Amino acid sequence: MKYIPITFAISVLALFLRASVTASDHHTAQAIEHAAMAKAHGEDGHAKVLLKHAEESLKHAQASEKQHAEQHAHMTESVKHLKKAIEHAKAGHADVATKHVEEALIHIRQSTTE
Q: H or E stretch including 109?
């Protein structure tokens, strides 16, 4: 019976992670698509159309880069809090450990919404 809440929490987290991957993959896919179009038009000698697609590709690449950096920062912060939670739990400080786990959860969730 103890494992049911944990299993539920992990399942919910997996759903949030899947949604986040889809959102950040959108920018990556758009960056690739526009870069490929820019390349094709460049090979045909169409500099103006190449420019449009290259600029659009850059916008999406930068958005994807920003999302991944913010996600990484939140996960790094969650790891710090989880390590502190483990440290305090080993010392028998359940209340302090719980607060660190709560902070870790906040950062994990934020890493999936950026």
A: helix 94-113
